[in-house]
Amino acid sequence: MSRLDQMSGELIARLDSAPDLQALEADRIALLGKQGEITRLLKTLGAMTPEQRNVEGPQMHALRERVSSAIASRKAALEDEDLQRRLAAETLDLSLPVAPGPQGSVHPVSQVMDELAEIFGDLGFSVATGPEIEDDWHNFTALNIPESHPARAMHDTFYFDRTDGSGRRMLLRTHTSPVQIRTMQTQKPPFYIIAPGRTYRSDSDATHTPMFHQVEGLVIDRGITLGHLKWTLETFLKAYFERDDIVLRLRPSYFPFTEPSAEVDIGYTMVNGRRVLGGSEGWMELLGSGMVHPSVLENCGLDPDEWQGFAFGCGIDRLAMLKYGMDDLRAFFDGDLRWLRHYGFSALDVPTLSGGVGA
Ligand code: DAH
Predict the structure, then answer these.
(1) Spatial contact of 188 and 301, defined as CB atoms under 8 Å apart
(2) Burial profile 143-179: b = 16 or more Cβ within 10 angstroms, e = fewer
(3) Cβ–Cβ < 8 Å for 128, 194
(4) 211, 248, 268, 292: which one has the fewest Cβ atoms less than 10 Å from its Cβ?
(5) How far is the CA of 177 from the centre of ligand 1 (A)?
(6) Residues of CATH 3.30.930.10 domain(s) within the chain?
(7) Quick one: pLDDT at residue 23?
(8) What is the CATH number of domain 108-338?
(9) Mutation pick for ligand 1 pocket among 149, 157, 232, 257 (CB with most ligand atoms within 8 Å)
(10) Is residue 126 within a helix (H) or strand (E), and if so which, with residue range?
């Protein structure tokens, strides 16, 4: 075997096993580049005798051809491997939408519920829930609203045909107050809870919808006074409206389940003809509250001489309207995408006391 044949065999084997495109390119330059091994070999033809050149010339050109085509085929093979690897790794889901930005938004009611949980969570409260389909005892009787009580008629209750064990018709809860009863019956005091949720009354106009939202608050501990109630509501509303100048006014009122009872008004100031919360130029009714009635504690098996507490109930939709400026409650439940886009919140905007409970 001639020297060139041997060289050719070695070179082809090396090129065929070049590990990647970079190594192959380095080999190409080292062999066929201006200073390359084969280029230099070809240059020696000029110094040869014509006879020598006739023998060596074709062999050298053949070597260059073989090396060139070995490089070309290895290059094609490596490029193909590369493509297969990328096709396997870079998958493309053709069923994805063209511009998959965030599409939905958090409804203001959900946003306010999250804000309430954040604020009251920080005060040591936990969130309690109860069923929306209630029985008469939890919704009325246990809350000191007996059958003949006028408050029952005031609630415009939705009743079911189905009755409970005592023959009374089941109903859609008219307020979140039955969650107070369920909590006190099933857990051990002290209690520090809020209970946000859906409530129902047969009522409909710009500020009333048959389904609406309330948040109930309940604190039961030893030595709880009206002072604790006022401080808690003030602290809550200052954090919620993100203003330190919130002023509250407790007006004597009546609820069967509290004694004494107070309606809580929040003060506002007129700024350019608009009511702005804060100050005390005027008053807006905001929520109902009071000290839990001893009969309610007894109905839940608690001794009123040992345990006292306060409760409050507040419309969540109204809280949202006052903070975020909507003026028609019915739009809350229309499911109109334009309204939801305008008043909705980003799902990533989680309310925190440190970062701001609003948006
Ligand atoms: N349950 C009352 C309502 O729906 C609101 C309320 C008033 C709740 C006073 C309370 C309270 O816990 O103490 O109108």
Answers:
(1) no
(2) bbbeeeeebbeebebbeeeeeeeeebebbbbbbbbbb
(3) yes
(4) 211
(5) 6
(6) 108-338
(7) 92
(8) 3.30.930.10
(9) 257
(10) strand 126-127
